[in-house]
Amino acid sequence: MKVECMENINKCRFISYIKPSEPICGSDRVTYSGECHLCSKILHEGLNITKLYDGPCVSKVTFILHF
What is the pTM of this model? Predict the structure, then answer.
């Protein structure tokens, strides 16, 4: 993902001014405001994160059934 981010960083800067991004869930289980936000974290903080899926991260829910 880091290579892809480096190739698209200028595009991200341009797009972020035109339209808002949709949230995505990163492999660190943090919701990012879009792929550009995730790429910014990867490039500027040296993090090793990948996109898990589109949409906000969903916390794991545990159900306990009582009988």
Answer: 0.67
Taking the C-alpha atoms of residue 24 and residue 57, their distance in angstroms, rounded to an integer, is: 7
Q: DSSP assignment of 8-52, as one string?
A: HHHHHHHHHHHSPPPPEEETTS-EESSHHHHHHHHHHH-----EE
- For 13-26, letters b (16+ CB in 10 Å) and e give eeeeeeeeeeebbb
Main-chain dihedrals φ then ψ at residue 42, nearest 5 degrees: -65, -50
Return the percentage of the chain with pLDDT > 70, whole number: 63
Domains assigned to the chain = 2-54 (3.30.60.30)
